[in-house]
Specification:
mainly alpha, 75% helix, globular
Amino acid sequence: MLASAIHTPHVDWFAMSPALTLLGASAVCLMAAVLLPVATRRWFTAWVTAGAFVGAFVAAALLYDRSPHPQEVIAGAIVRDRFGALAALIICGAGLASVGVSWRMRLRAHTAEYYALLAAAAGGMVFLVTATNLITVFLALEWFSICLYILCAIDVDLEGSLEAGLKYLVVGGFGSAFLLFGSALVYGSTGKVGFADIARATAAQGLKHDSLLVAGLAMILAGLGFKASAAPFHMWTPDVYEGAPTPVTGFMAAATKTTALVLTLRLLTTAFPQEKQLWTIALAVFAVASLAIGNLAALVQRNVKRMLAYSSISHAGFMLIPIAAGNALGGRALLYYLIPYSAMSVAAFAVVAARERELGQAVTFENIAGLGWERPFLGAALWACMLGFAGLPLTGGFVGKFYAFSAAYDRGWVWLVIVGAVATAVSLYYYFGLVRALYMRAPSAVSLAPSGGQPPRELALQTAVLGCLAVVVASFFAVEPLIKLARMAASSLVF
């Protein structure tokens, strides 16, 4: 009698299928770490993880097709809509490419655990982009963050990897604390944790500009800024990106940024529409700071991974511009921008990973010299990624930046467009500097090649790079279909 009186919410398993697919693969990989012999763990867990990313990608595509109208599921914990489905597609695509980049990664006896953590982290990200209340946000954030902390430190033979994991853990803990305390203040002010419920309570109780609510919003923005590696919350990014295993860095640069920015847009537009005047100005300030710090610091870097880390900070600024615009055009611009940016990030770090394995040391502007002639395909791929990061034509980066600037112009913020254009001009120096190093080896850099022939072909890595390169170029020539996808996904939110 008592059991029959307990109400349990309906569970839409289809809405959770992408995250559940990745979690299931993670469990299989963990079992393989215990049950399979060492010689078979790498290929088995890699194929299981790749298959899970493909399955989750297909599930997210079906969700996109069959979710024309947003619908809260599981007692309002998550939402089933095209906005979250498109973000899940980007995350799964980045994860699949990262599996290929990781194929020849040397981790002694921890290979199975690596793929288990990679799949689990992606599952947490996919779950987070559909979150519709503050409790779900915090739980999903910790879910994938803990996985990333371990992934950064998983290469125990490298001191830099352990240092990166520790730094990310400490700074990530601060970011999570900001987010949690901010959520507590928002709950204390409104008595609600659901995004839509917070907005309704703010309007009904006349809490606009309430000090407790505004303080909570500020702390939430700080917490999300840490995850998006946006200035002034960027301090962990260069050291962690440099020290972490390069395939992990590429995955973080693409998937973590996608997750944080998509969540930021959903949270602000759904839960805090009454405070729009405040958070748009705050995000515009973060964008300018990210553009200034990222580009100026990148100018003096000689380590390629550190340069790409500061480039990531700069691009966080570019992608904050359409969110700060606070309009429907900005929502579409962000979703479009994330597609080529994620592909460029994974491809660029994949080329760095290949060079690292050839040299057995960190990749710098000096020792990457001549790669364009030695490995023509990888050199051309990195060259194309630099053009895309710079926002030049024939790559999706050009359309992404133009779209982001259009959102700011539509808001009437011409000054922000000018700042973005100046930042783009500054970035040409270090992006073209890397291209110059690829093809114009200085005479002093020429030395005898070590015996043993050419480095082994990495078919999985090159396939991943080819797939990413196809996305980067296709996103320039197939603009209309992608903009349509982004427009339909952004229509799930109310601006």
